[in-house]
TrEMBL record:
<protein>
    <submittedName>
        <fullName>ADP-ribose pyrophosphatase YjhB (NUDIX family)</fullName>
    </submittedName>
</protein>
<dbReference type="InterPro" id="IPR000086">
    <property type="entry name" value="NUDIX_hydrolase_dom"/>
</dbReference>
<feature type="region of interest" description="Disordered">
    <location>
        <begin position="150"/>
        <end position="170"/>
    </location>
</feature>
<dbReference type="Pfam" id="PF00293">
    <property type="entry name" value="NUDIX"/>
</dbReference>
<feature type="domain" description="Nudix hydrolase">
    <location>
        <begin position="25"/>
        <end position="156"/>
    </location>
</feature>
<feature type="compositionally biased region" description="Pro residues">
    <location>
        <begin position="154"/>
        <end position="170"/>
    </location>
</feature>
<dbReference type="InterPro" id="IPR015797">
    <property type="entry name" value="NUDIX_hydrolase-like_dom_sf"/>
</dbReference>
């Protein structure tokens, strides 16, 4: 049964990507960097069952801004994909504009804390695993999503460039 469902999900995703190339829609997505309770040096990584099956990624998905905020969507996606609640607020790591697969996407990456370590994957996911933030326990050669790498990268401590020109030397 899971093989048939995986084939159906893969075919559906391929059709959706074709439609995106024709229509070029504006979409909104959210990804969640989720830490287990009391362990900020670990995070939850997932592998999808229908696309990029080998790539470790962050849980998340699509949302409609008129219906929910990125944080509400992040909570919903984590609950749907992993049957996991989030404690406290989700904080924005970054928001990016991307053009991939023919669609124009606004992706918001959030960070938060899971209510527990117990995870139950939905049919969308083939695996979920708590990994170290230094990635030392990622299997050799396993690809990582770009969004996961961005979420784990330290914030840029340099100040934003000034829009004023440098004063003339005296």
């Amino acid at each position: 049964m899971s093989r048939v469902l995986g084939a159906v999900l893969t075919a559906g995703h391929r059709l959706r990507r074709l439609w995106w190339r024709v229509r070029r829609p504006r979409t909104f997505g959210v990804k969640v960097l989720l830490h287990p309770p009391e362990d900020p040096l670990r995070f939850l990584a997932v592998r999808h069952s229908y696309v990029d099956r080998d790539r470790w990624a962050l849980p998340g998905g699509r949302y409609r801004p008129r219906r929910e905020s990125p944080a509400e969507a992040g909570r919903r996606e984590v609950a749907e994909e992993l049957a996991l609640a989030i404690t406290g607020d989700l904080q924005e790591v970054t928001a990016l504009e991307t053009v991939t697969e023919g669609k124009r996407d606004r992706l918001t990456i959030l960070v938060g804390t899971a209510a527990s370590r117990e995870v139950s994957t939905s049919l969308e996911l083939s695996e979920a695993r708590w990994l170290r933030t230094d990635l030392a326990d990622v299997p050799d050669g396993a690809p990582l999503s770009r969004w996961l790498r961005i979420a784990l990268s330290p914030p840029d401590p340099s100040p934003a460039p000034s829009s004023r020109p440098d004063p003339a030397p005296r």
